[in-house]
Amino acid sequence: MVLKVLRNEMKKNKIDCYIIPTLDPHSSEYLPDYYKERQFVTGFTGSAGTAVVTNSDAFLWTDGRYFIQAESQIKDNGFKLMKIGIEGYPTIIEWLSDNLKSGSVLGLNAKYYLQSDFENLELKLNKNNISIIDIDLIKDIWQDRISLPNSKVFIHEHKYSGRTSEQKIEDVRKVLSENNANLTIISKLDDIAWLFNIRCNDIEHTPVVISYAIVEMEKVYIFINKDKLDDNVIKYLSSFSEIINYDDVFEHVKKYFETNIYIDKSSINHKLFSEINESNNVISGDDLIEGLKTVKNPIEIQNIKNAHIRDGVALTKFIYWIKRIVKDEIITEYEAAQKLRKFREEQALFTDESFETISAYGKNAAMMHYSASEEKASVIENKGFLLVDSGAQYLDGTTDITRTIAVGELTDEEITDFTYVLKSHFVLSSAVFLKGTKDSALDAIARYPLWKIHSDYKCGTGHGVGYFLGVHENPPWLSPRALGSEIKEGMIFSDEPGVYKEGKFGIRTENILEVVKDIENESGIFLKFNLISFAPIEREAINVNLLDDFELKALNEYHKEVYEKISPFLNSEERSWLYEVTKEMSK
Length: 587
Hints:
This protein is an alpha+beta fold. The chain contains 18 helices and 28 strands. The chain has a six-stranded mixed sheet with strand order 4-3-2-1-5-6, sandwiched between helices. It has a six-stranded mixed sheet with strand order 12-11-10-8-13-14. Strands 21-28-27-24 form a four-stranded antiparallel sheet. α15 packs antiparallel against α16 (about 440-450).
C-alpha cells in the first residue's frame, strides 16, 4: 500500500506531516502523468485536490465538483475526504494548525508548492513552532513513474495569433515599466506559449511546452529542453530570445542582484522563488501575461468564432445521431464520446479534444467531472438525460460546450430542473452591465433563478477560455469564490449553470460568451454578451410556461441563429431535423 510506504519514508526522514498538492512546477491545472503524485498516493483521479499525511491520519481536500468521485476512489486507500467550502470541514491550514504539535516538522516538495501558498502556510505554522522543509519523498517510492513528455514544439502562425511575439514582448515591457520593474520571471506554460507564439503537446489536451521564461527590458530568455526544437523553431526563437536549457533556470535566477523583479506569487513555485537573491526588490502582483492574453485581439476573436461554428456542426451531428441510435442499439457513454470525437475530427484545423469528454448518463451525470472508460461505462437507455460536456482544440480556437440531451422519456422533475438551468443560462447571457463590473457579481446574477427555487450548484458559473491553449483561463472566473476581476470587452468565457442531484441526474447547459460594448451614455459605458457557440438546446425538456418573456425571446433568437449558422454544413436529413428542433416556441 502506497500510504504505508510513504509513512516509512516520513519516519526515516523524521517528517511528522507531508503535503502533496495537485501541482507541477508551473502551476498547471492539468498535469503531465509524471507530476500526478497526489493521484499516485491517494487513487483520486480528479484534477484538483491536496493530500495531507501524518503517521496516523491521511486526508484529501477537494471541492464540490469531486465529492462523489473522491469519496469512491479514496475509500480503500486509507484516506478520508475533506470537503472544501462546506461548513464543518476545516481548511488545510486550520487542520494543520490545530493538529500538529509544537516542534513538528512538515515536509513538502518546494517545486510543487506555490510561493503564495507557502507564505500563508509559513505565516500560520511558524507561530506554532512548526518547521517546514523542502523534501521529495515520492521520487524513491514511485517505481513505475512515467517519464516527462518530450513533444516537439511548433510555431503558432501569425494568421492565427494576430500579433507577433515581438509585439507581445513590448506589451509586457510596457506593463513592467508601469510597475517600475526591470524584469519578470514567467512560470505558467500557457503564458509562455502565448507570449512566444509556440505550441506543443506536453500536457494532454493542452498545447503547451514545459518551459520557463524571463523578460528583461533588453533581453528575453526561454528555458526549454532543446531536444524539443527543430531547426526552424530554433531559428524562430533565436530571432528574439536566447534559448537556455530548462533546468538552468534556477542558476540563472541567482545572477540577478539589486534589481526590481515582478513576480506573480500565485504561479511561481517556492523552489524557484527562493533562488532570488535578497538584494533584489520583489514587486508582487497579478499575472501580467494573463492581463494581456485574456482580452482577445480582433483576429483571435474572428478565428474563435469560426472554430465554434465548425465545432457546433460536429456537436449537432452528434446530437442527431445519438437521439436516434439509442432507440435501436446498445451504446455506452464511452462509445458515445468516441463518436463525438470522430465528428470533430472531420472538421478543419482540429488537433485534439480540449479536455476528456464527460459523457454521463442518468445518475452518473450527478458527478460533475465523471469519466467513463471503455472498461467501465453505463449503457445509455432510451429514457432520461445524457449529459455531454466536451470541447476541442483547433488551430484557430479552443471550444467548450455542454448539452444535456433527452434520449427518451423525461420525468416532470427532470423537465423542471432543465428549465430552471436554462433560465439561469439566459439570465446571464442576456445581461447588460456597467463597465467595471466584477466576475463575482455576474456569478450571482446567473444563480438567482435557481436560488429562487432553493437550488444551487457547487462549482463556478463560468471560466475564461484560452486561445488554442487551456480550456480554463483566468480571469475571468465566475464563482462565489472569485477574487473579483473586471469583465473587459474582448474577453471570452463560459456560461454553464447546472443542477446535480446525487443518485438521479445532472443537468448543465453551457455556451461561450464574447464580451462586447453595448452603449455609452451619461451613466457610463455598458457591456453585454454575444453567444458564439451554437448547437440546439433540448426543446422537449423545456416547460415553456416557466420561462419569463425575455428568456423565451432569448431562446428563440438563439435557436434561429443556430439554424442559420449550422444548417449549411449538414446533410438534408440532419438539416430537416435541425429545423424542427430549433422552431420558435411559444406559451
